[in-house]
Amino acid sequence: MNKTVSFITDHFGKYNTSDIDSCLAVGGFTGLKRALGLTPADVIRTIADSGIQGRGGAAYSTGKKWQQAAAVPGEDKVVICNADEGEPCTFKDRALLENDPFRLIEGMAIAGYAVGAGHGYIYLREEYRHLKPRLEKAIEQARTCRWLGNHIQDSNFNFDITLYSGAGAYVCGEGSTLIESMEGKSGRPRIKPPYIKECGLFQKPTLVNNVETLAAAAAILEKGAEAFTAYGTEKSPGTKLISLAGNVKNPGAYEIPFGMTLREIIETIGGGLEEGRTLKLLQLGGASGSIAPAALLGTPYTYEDLNKAGLDVGSGGILVVDDRTSVIEFLKAIQDFFIHESCGKCTPCREGNRQIGRIIARYAEGAPRPDDLETARRFATIMCNCSFCGLGETAQSALLSAMRHFPEAFEADAFEAGVTGTKETIGERGLRV
Ligand SMILES: Cc1cc2nc3c(=O)[nH]c(=O)nc-3n(C[C@H](O)[C@H](O)[C@H](O)COP(=O)(O)O)c2cc1C
Ligand code: SF4
């Protein structure tokens, strides 16, 4: 039984994305129309009542964030849509951009109205450049039909959107780094305070929200907070877009109600694993997320239950890895990613990632040193506690959770004395753990 839902995704496939009239015919921009009939404070209350938490990874209450942004004094505020989506195995924002660009425009305008911003920017990851013409056309059409621009739908609200293309760095998904990059500086995070809500893009008060958060806000304004909270659990209300990837029969972006177990997601939505394969591990929330063994498949997909199990919703990525990949091979791929993406600004992340990379490489070659495990644990802990930004703080989630759930992968007797070689030779010798 397919348990997907369509609260945010209800317009997918129902209209021609290059024709705003076909979008309006299926109810596009109803949320913005409703919002314009409310006071900004009421719009924020609706979002707060929905209980939605930011979908970019940090899960901060969107209602609270908008309230704080609205409370910042100043006429010249900015809304930025974070469409950087650089987390490996995460592509749910792309699904929204591809299938319902007008929903995002609507959500950004609602956010602008609520917090008192007159301009919005979409920060689109470089790898999504093929979507630029589609988004540009959608913005242009929204302007022509007066869903953007001055006096939107004869109201006193003015709001326009500019599309900005990133240059392909993962760290630029972090809010302050994204702003640095938009200002033409190198992609490195800013020290806080001042917080970007007060002093963000070009020193203006700035609200940064994820694509899904903004699209959900439009759907919530259209259908009401109660329609959203009809899904999910008390602490994780609503629906979530997930990117189901890896060794499942039906990988893809899906909208699900919070509360399904991981097993249900993989089996009923993902179609299960290939015949004859068994689950080695899951990784939740992208490369910066923890990994989990099959024993945790009964965990409900909610913020609270995943948290109790040491996991996180994060970016909404769910990566399924079967028995063909060893834990060490997997960790090596993750580590290579972080070595490449560390911006180098702070020592714990820059040096910690490189040193841990060397240790994992020794494990992958079947020749770890006796103190490697403890050294890696120590470096990983320092990185979590002392890194300058979220990249370094979360880069070792996979390693630390592997030490917890797959201790056998690091045991010396998993490696024949003197065994060295590539991951393929290790696999042939049956040393995969
Ligand atoms: C290294 C790093 C990368 C990030 N990448 C993204 C991203 O690609 N998209 C995103 O929305 N948030 C990303 N975030 C989170 C943002 O900093 C920010 O919390 C988010 O855009 C806020 O939107 P939300 O409140 O709607 O979740 C990233 C954070 C870090 C530390
Ligand atoms: S943790 Fe430090 S080195 Fe790593 S990306 Fe952030 S600022 Fe750069």
Automatic annotation (TrEMBL):
Keyword presence, Magnesium: no
Single GO molecular function: FMN binding
Domain NADH-ubiquinone oxidoreductase 51kDa subunit iron-sulphur binding stretches: 328-373
Protein's UniProt name: NADH-quinone oxidoreductase subunit F
Organism, scientific name: Acidaminobacter hydrogenoformans DSM 2784
The family this protein is said to belong to: Belongs to the complex I 51 kDa subunit family.
InterPro entries in UniProt: NADH-UbQ_OxRdtase_51kDa_CS, Nuo51_FMN-bd, Nuo51_FMN-bd_sf, Nuop51_4Fe4S-bd, Nuop51_4Fe4S-bd_sf, Soluble_ligand-bd
Keyword terms: 4Fe-4S, Iron, Iron-sulfur, Metal-binding
Domain of life: Bacteria
PANTHER family xrefs: NADH-QUINONE OXIDOREDUCTASE SUBUNIT F
PROSITE patterns in the cross-refs: COMPLEX1_51K_2 (PS00645)
